[in-house]
Design goal:
By secondary structure, the protein is mostly helical. The protein is built from 14 helices and 5 strands.
Length: 365
């Protein structure tokens, strides 16, 4: 009897040890998003030091299942060494270094350690918040709504875009023409001949587009390229310009404001497009009798133009600022002095277009 009990006890202990052996396998189950891509033919994803890399297997009909822990998606960059493990000396102890750690987890942690110094930290997150099927006269497509979110911050008014698959495909094609080497490691979900409107396909593509934009944003040259930047805010600028020209100022104001937030998130608040956005905001605020807000937009634009001796929008902004400052009771002497300098430099201010005329005439292509 004692021998039989001892035999059963040994078997029970051996079973518990076997269950505790794969320490890396349980982590992937905590993140249900990763399971969406297990059978995805679009590709696999791995986040290292806050940067998403996305590799596809376009030659295969079906994808191999993701390894334990390899597909885990994190919403924030990995914690600093010491914070994750809570050790007193600040040394990070991973699951692979504790008893029972699996070989795959140990390899991933070693790869992360080697890569964290060379990969750019994730400062901007791209999240597909909704996707809707749109039916038009002769076409049907899925429209994806994407939020641009600063990591670790809460946006009361988030910057949003709405794009369809063909928009992403055009961006991918343009970037591959210009940045063929950098784009070699960036995968893009290929077209499907069927089941394009199923919930499963839409969910997988939503995740793939998030990874696609995150990977592009992690590459310095692509992140600063006009092709990448204008994918986000140029459609809003074009729509806002049309609405302003037709006198729909309230609708235009909302679109100009979203274009402002997009450029702010992307870090291009000193470009010519941003100055045009401030001009649009100033015009719409003024037309809606929101004079203080219009005055503030002019002041922000003049601060950006401070170091520039000449700019097509400098005269119009100065004239608008003087007029609005007089309306709201603000100091306008500095702007008047700058206008006087322009007159002495020979600039015919009487022939300068107004901010509204600048908006109407500006080609946005």
């Amino acid at each position: 009897m004692a021998a039989r009990i001892l035999h059963r006890l040994r078997h029970a202990l051996a079973g518990e040890a076997g269950r505790e052996e794969p320490a890396g396998g349980g982590e992937a189950e905590d993140c249900p998003e990763s399971s969406e891509l297990e059978d995805d033919t679009e590709g696999l994803s791995t986040r290292l030091s806050g940067t998403l890399s996305f590799t596809s297997h376009e030659d295969e009909e079906e994808e191999e299942e993701e390894g334990d822990g390899a597909s885990e998606e994190l919403e924030e960059p990995p914690q600093a060494p010491g914070a994750a493990a809570g050790t007193e000396d600040g040394e990070w102890v991973s699951a692979a270094e504790r008893p029972g750690g699996s070989l795959l987890t140990r390899q991933l942690q070693e790869l992360w350690r080697r890569s964290r110094g060379s990969l750019a930290p994730q400062r901007l997150l791209f999240e597909v918040t909704s996707a809707s099927v749109v039916s038009e006269r002769s076409s049907k497509y899925v429209l994806y709504t994407i939020y641009l979110i600063r990591s670790g911050q809460f946006d009361k008014a988030p910057a949003t875009i709405a794009r369809r698959y063909s928009d992403f495909e055009q961006l991918n094609r343009r970037l591959r023409c210009r940045f063929s080497c950098d784009m070699a490691s960036v995968a893009f979900p290929r077209k499907r001949l069927r089941r394009n409107f199923t919930a499963e396909t839409i969910a997988k593509r939503s995740r793939a587009f998030e990874q696609f934009l995150s990977h592009l944003h992690s590459i310095d040259e692509i992140r600063r390229s006009p092709e990448f930047l204008e994918f986000f805010f140029l459609p809003d600028l074009q729509a806002a310009q049309r609405l302003t020209c037709t006198g729909m100022y309230r609708e235009a104001l909302a679109t100009w404001a979203n274009a402002y937030r997009l450029q702010d998130r992307l870090g291009v608040c000193s470009s010519g497009r941003f100055l045009l956005t401030l001009a649009g905001l100033a015009v719409c605020h003024q037309e809606l009798d929101q004079l203080s807000e219009a005055h503030g937009c002019c002041e922000q634009a003049l601060q950006l133009l401070e170091a520039q001796g000449s700019h097509p929008l400098l005269g119009p902004f100065l004239q608008a600022h003087v007029h609005l400052a007089w309306k709201v009771g603000k100091d306008k002497r500095r702007s008047e002095a700058r206008l006087q300098d322009l007159r002495e430099a020979g600039l015919p201010l009487q022939q300068q277009p107004s901010l509204k005329e600048c908006l109407i005439k500006e080609p946005l292509e």
